[in-house]
Design goal:
about 90 residues, alpha+beta, 3 strands, about 30% helix
């Protein structure tokens, strides 16, 4: 959500966010953010029962291109699927 401001406490690194703060910045629910952290989709540091997130690290990961389902991850080969032929060099 653009324009969401996170209130920072004195002496606290403004780059380090709680689950609720990150969820508000991303426009997601806290539960979704926790699921993404548990799945390793976003970098997180486990602190007791919750997580802490580096805003810069999360932004970096989320900006990386990902393979979309149904699209080849590498260059396509001329071999039909399931032919058992080794990939082309």
């Amino acid at each position: 959500m653009p324009g969401v401001e996170v209130m920072s406490l004195p002496g606290r690194d403004p780059d380090v966010l709680t689950t609720s703060e990150l969820a508000a910045k991303l426009g997601l629910s806290p539960q979704t953010v926790r699921r993404m952290a548990n799945a390793g989709q976003i970098p997180a540091l486990k602190t007791g029962r919750d997580f802490r997130y580096s805003w810069e690290a999360v932004r970096h990961v989320l900006r990386q291109p990902r393979d979309l389902p149904g699209e080849p991850a590498d260059e396509p080969t001329d071999d039909p699927p399931g032919s058992g032929a080794p990939p082309a060099p």
